[in-house]
Structures are given as structure tokens and as C-alpha cells.
Amino acid sequence: MWFRIVSIAAFLAAFIGAFVFFQWEKQSPTSATARVPGEDELKRQLEQQYDQWWQEKEEPVESRLPFRKKIAVVHVGELNTDLLYGKRVGDLGQRLATFNPDTKAMYFYSQDDIPEKEDNMVVVQDIHSLDVLVEENVYRSADQVRIDFAPFEQPDPEGNPDYFIVNEARLFNGQAMNVSLLNDNGDIQVEFDGQVKRLAPGEKAAFEKNEDKDSLRVRSKVVVTNYGMWDSVNMKYAVQR
Questions:
Q1: What distance in Å separates the CA atoms of residue 146 and residue 91, rounded to the nearest whole number?
Q2: For the chain, what is the total number of helices (H) and then of strands (E)?
Q3: pLDDT tens, position by position, 47-104
Q4: Which end of the chain, C or N, has fewer beta carbons within 10 A?
Q5: Is residue 176 helix, strand or coil?
Q6: C-beta of residue 189 within 8 angstroms of C-beta of residue 196
Q7: What is 100-146 written as a DSSP string?
Q8: Can you tell me the distance from the alpha carbon of 200 to that of 33, in angstroms, rounded to the nearest whole number?
């Protein structure tokens, strides 16, 4: 008796399974191959996933330069004691690049400033009034960079600025500096303030002025540092979204 009951139960289970299977096949007449998304649909899905990943990405995406070569790295630092007047707190300028002489690594915050394949030299110039960054510039060239020391524009008064520029206290205003790459070893020549100086990798050149203005001793100093030839493989940049 029990054997008959088990047989009937097995038959009913098989019948129900077959019924469900054929009903599913009836509702889905297309084959499994036909249900696979086509190339255009897959591309559309991947683009959607990529856009969503970009939107959810909190940290900037970084990339390396798409070529490998040696590039000369030069820093032009300018310090002024009285370029700003007021109660300014915080930097005026924006950092465009940072570098580490110990590891010979460089990071650019924008794709607009990265070297191209034909560039052999990168010059980073930053201008300070004491500890306030007023402006930073990145120059790149195959062999020569010209830096013009031009007066700054005053801030828009409608914005209620907390400072104004004292261009007279920037004692190198009106001059120009030429930085030339001399050879593959990374030697450079600096022409500035009526002087011509040759710098090997690791060497510096300082230019200094002091003047009395309205009973105040004003100072400006420019230091050019030749960091030598760095491998572009250690140069990264932030990918713009």
C-alpha cells in the first residue's frame, strides 16, 4: 500500500514539474540565445554603469602621463613681504601642481597643465605674500620658458574684499625671466634681473631686492631651483570629469 502511495506522489511531482516547465516555455517562446542583449544594448548598459560610477566617485580619478621620457623640473619661488594689505586669511591662488624632490614625483591638479610628449621641461612658479599664496603658474616647453612679472589686478570692490594688492611692494614687477634647458643632463640657464646664471641639477639661484617705501622696509626674493631630470612615469594628474 505504501509503495503505491509513494509512486503516485512521485508521478504527481513529475507531472507538476513538467506542467510548470511547458507553461514557462509557452510564455517564453524565444530561445536563450535570443534573450542575450545585443551589442548596442550591452554598450548602453556599460555607459550607464560608467556614468553612475563617476557620479558616486568621491575621490578624484588619477592617471599617469601617456608617454615615458625624462623631463626637467624647475621651481621658481617668489616671496614678497608686503604685497597684500588687509585682513586676508587663506590663500588667494590655487595649487596647480605639487612635487616631492625626494621621490621625484609630481602631481598635477588639472589635465590642462600636464606636459605634452614634445615637452622637455616643466616650470612651476608660485608667488607669495609672506605665507599667503597669491598665484601659481605651470609652464611647459621643449627648451625655453619665459615668465613675465606683471602687476596684479585689484579685487572687485563689489565683492567686499578683505585685502588689496600693493603692486609697488613687488619689487620685480615689470621684469621677465627666461629659463632655458641646455642639455639632456638637465643643466639650465636663468636670465633675470640683469644676470645670467647656469644651474646644474640640485643647484639654486637667488635674486633679492630691498627698498624703503613710506618708512617701510619692503623685500622681494626669487629663488630658482633646478631639480634635474625626472621620469614622467612618476607624474600623475587628476582626470577631469
A1: 25
A2: 2, 15
A3: 776 666 555 555 667 889 989 999 999 999 999 999 988 876 678 899 999 999 999 9
A4: N
A5: strand
A6: yes
A7: ETTTTEEEESSGGGSPPTT--EEEEEEEEETTEEEEEEEEEESSEEE
A8: 67
